[in-house]
Specification:
7-stranded mixed β-sheet; globular
Length: 817
């Protein structure tokens, strides 16, 4: 080979790997030992498995997959028993919508896409154990997803209740959130409605406290743990009952600040609250109905982000149990029905949203917490309007002493919370309450292309579990994939499939399918025994491999990771797992953006196709190494054609060192210091996932070999350290050098150098760096002569310098010319 030809080298080694399957994980007993009698450690790593779109892999996938692959190879080279599996998250709307448009079944389209993904992954040379490949829409997989559902159902953690769904009245179909564009159907443009439908939920809130408490012990990025904490949103407060004036009905509110009840001047209900229709007067009903109709068209995010407060008076009043004052009852979309009780007591003097609402609708504002004179904290919020309470007091929501609060006047607000709740409990109108922002997990999807829910209904509409020996409940063959006119999925059109017999009784199958997150909540455990027909995961295999050692992803920071943890805790409680957290270490990688820093997208025409990069002549090794070198793995980075060219030149230099005589030979001792320093640096960088600095260290090492000369030992170390990044080239180098790939170790003594580097400055500017023997550091005359003899220094010093300053122990020579 006369020059570095990455395509040729990569094709050779990919063929070898396909034939020899070197990445197949070994099934070993837990006490297995290596040839030296040392225990063999296991290491299981995985990326968040991809949805196999028709577009194939993109450069974001390459970064994600290359991180996992570099670590897998690194640990394998250290003698660990490595499992690096792969799979596909294949259920979902894209395949179903494609089927609706083209008539091509989701099964067929998915198989085509998977074949394409697999081919591309192999082109990138990933060290994947292909014998463990999984696909969530394979009946052999979703049989066990259904089994998982049934375990939750048996324990009452899978249940049904009514929930609002987007509905297109023209297409007569339920729409997902992403199919609603500015309040209209994405397909036909019709204004959408909200429709109440019976839905399935998982009771994740039963595990809320444990999910929250265990976060602190995880080796995960802080931003991800914080995102989960915020999603769970635990808060301590109280439920308080407010009587409705002139009625026997009550409205229960949840508040985190019961100490402010004396300042509650009105109630606000969520538009979905069932009591709204009951309390409206004849004069307000039409206006309220119109408001609710418009409010429920907004997503919860839109309702929370809407800066302008809107609302409508119901015409009804409640009685404040602390003051006996009448309080108007309003409906407003900034109150969410799914949080707390779907009703709030509004305290405009001490809550920003309530203050804005009260200002807009001219509602009473009563101060009940006095801001301490010395308190300048940010809990004092001045409204953007600049208006103050009583002209001089701003909306304050910090702590302080109670005022205008009856017998609680003068009590510190922190203490008053306990006292007031106890007072309300004595009267039977209040109680302590812990609540969460996190809701139970809505898992119903009115879609064909999802995992069928293994439930059937008797003639009275009661749900029954499909017997486990009848699993999997498979999709019937259909030709029309659109939901039916009632909003049920296309499964409802398969009349023969709908009927099933359970315990001698004919029943009707559920036509909803499971949220895709259900399929991905347990796939990490299926990897350990993907072909087991008797278990979702083999007990011995799960005991050996799990929990997962390293998980890498760049999306799904909250939902997916929360659901995996929930299922892990549930199945641990059921005795199927012997651990309660599924992932030991989480790496959360940044995005690869377009050269201008913007996100890549087809519509912008700025997408980089990894196969185009490979086929342009750079090869897979260059692409992999570049994406690991582009910056810290956990930060976003912009694609740079210039920088990838630099990585290609680096690999070309590595090839040249081994396969040509362009670089002089040297004794093995010549580079002993930089060789051992490089081994140490790259090893420590890999352990902390510092891929970019590891590559930089290798580049510096190669520069040293070009400068000082090369030995066989130098080249073997280079090839071994290069393998996690550029495995094809590294294998080619190791083969030529007749060396194994065992990860090298460093000698601490060899790191000690007989020389030190001295910086030479002329008039304060760096002009040279000198390597000086440690024994010469005290000889100032010699150091001065060496500095003045440097060719670059000579350019800036003509004749005798005015002064040469050599500070002790500063490794600096400062020349004043």
């Amino acid at each position: 080979m006369e020059r570095y030809n990455p395509i040729e080298i990569e094709e050779k080694w990919q063929k070898i790997w396909d034939e020899t399957e070197p990445f197949k994980a070994k099934e070993l007993p837990k006490d297995a030992k290596d040839k030296n009698g040392k225990p063999i450690q296991k290491m299981m790593l995985a990326e968040m498995f991809p949805y196999p779109s028709g577009a194939g892999l993109h450069v974001g996938h390459v970064r994600n997959f290359s991180i996992v692959d570099a670590l897998a190879r690194f640990y394998a080279q250290q003698g660990l028993n490595v499992l690096r599996p792969f799979g596909y998250d294949t259920f979902g709307l894209p395949a179903e919508n494609y089927a609706i448009k083209t008539g091509i079944s989701p099964e067929e389209a998915t198989e085509t896409n998977i074949n394409n993904f697999r081919k591309q992954a192999k082109r990138l040379g990933y060290a994947i154990d292909w014998s463990r490949e999984i696909n969530t829409s394979d009946p052999n997989y979703y049989k066990w997803t259904q089994w998982c559902f049934l375990q939750l159902f048996k324990k009452g953690l899978a249940y049904q209740k009514e929930s609002y769904q987007w509905w297109c009245p023209v297409d007569q179909t339920v729409l997902a959130n992403e199919q609603v564009e500015n309040g209209h159907c994405w397909r036909c443009g019709t204004e959408v409605e909200k429709k109440k439908m019976k839905q399935w939920f998982f009771k994740i809130t039963d595990y809320a406290d444990e999910l929250l408490a265990d976060l602190d012990s995880l080796d995960w990025p802080e931003k991800i743990k914080t995102a989960q904490k915020n999603w769970i949103g635990r808060s301590e407060g109280a439920n308080i009952d407010f009587n409705i004036d002139g009625s026997k009905d009550k409205i229960r509110v949840y508040t985190t600040r019961p100490d402010t009840i004396f300042g509650a001047t009105f109630l606000v209900l969520a538009p979905e609250h069932p009591i709204v229709a009951k309390i409206c007067t004849e004069t307000t009903k039409a206006k309220v109905d119109e408001y609710i109709k418009n409010a429920i068209k907004k997503s919860e995010i839109e309702r929370q982000e809407n800066k302008e407060k809107t609302g409508v008076f119901t015409g009804a009043y409640a009685i404040n149990p602390a003051t006996d004052e009448k309080m108007p009852i309003w409906v407003a979309d900034y109150v969410l029905f799914g949080y707390g009780e779907g009703a709030i007591m509004a305290v405009p003097a001490h809550d920003e949203r309530d203050y804005e609402f009260a200002q807009k609708f001219d509602l009473p504002i009563i101060e009940v917490i006095e801001k301490p004179e010395t308190n300048d904290d940010v809990d004092a919020v001045s409204m953007s309007s600049g208006e103050n309470i009583d002209g001089d007091k701003i909306c304050y929501h910090g702590e302080g002493k109670l005022v205008n609060s009856g017998k609680f006047n003068g009590v510190d607000s922190y203490d008053a919370r306990e006292q007031i709740v106890a007072w309300l409990e004595e009267q039977g109108i209040g109680a302590k309450k812990v609540t969460y922002k996190m809701r139970d997990w809505l898992i119903s999807r009115q879609r064909y292309w999802g995992c069928p829910i293994p439930i059937a209904y008797d003639k009275d509409g009661n749900p029954h579990a499909i017997p486990e020996d009848q699993l999997p409940v498979m999709h019937p063959k259909v030709t029309d994939y659109k939901p039916d006119s009632t909003g049920r999925s296309a499964l409802a059109k398969a009349k023969d499939w709908l009927k099933v017999e359970i315990d001698g009784e004919e029943m009707t199958r559920e036509t909803d399918t499971l949220d895709g997150y259900a399929c991905s909540s347990w796939y990490l455990w299926r990897y350990v025994s993907p072909h087991d027909d008797e278990h979702a995961w083999n007990p011995d295999a799960i005991d050996y491999w799990a929990p997962l050692d390293v998980y890498c992803g760049g999306d799904h920071a909250v939902a997916h990771l929360l659901y995996v943890r929930f299922w892990c805790k549930f199945f641990a409680d059921e005795g199927y797992l012997n651990f309660r957290e599924p992932i030991k270490k989480l790496l959360y990688n940044g995005y690869i953006n377009a050269p201008d820093g913007k996100k890549m997208s087809k519509s912008k025409g700025n997408v980089i196709d990894p196969l185009d990069v490979i086929d342009s002549g750079y090869g897979a090794d260059t692409l992999r190494t570049y994406e690991l070198f582009i910056g810290p793995y956990d930060e976003d980075a912009a694609w740079s054609t210039k920088a990838i060219g630099g990585v290609y030149r680096f690999l070309n230099r590595c090839w040249t060192l081994v396969f040509t005589d362009e670089v002089k030979s040297a004794d093995a001792k010549t580079n002993i210091q930089i060789r051992n320093a490089t081994i140490k640096k790259v090893t420590e960088d890999m352990r902390r996932a510092g891929f970019n600095t590891a590559v930089a260290g290798l580049m510096e090492y190669v520069n040293g070999l070009y400068k000082n000369g090369k030995s066989e030992e130098d080249l073997i170390v280079l090839a071994k350290l290069l393998k996690p990044f550029a495995p094809h080239l590294a294998c080619e180098m190791l083969e030529s050098l007749k060396a194994d790939d065992e990860w090298p170790t460093w000698d601490e003594k060899a790191l000690e150098s007989d020389t030190v580097e001295l910086v030479v400055q002329v008039n304060g500017k760096l002009r040279a760096k000198l390597q000086v023997a440690k024994t010469d550091l005290e000889d100032k005359d010699k150091l001065e002569k060496l500095a003045l003899a440097d060719e670059n220094v000579k350019k800036y010093v003509s004749g005798e310098p005015k002064k040469v300053i050599i500070p002790p122990r500063a490794n600096l020579i400062n020349i004043v010319a």
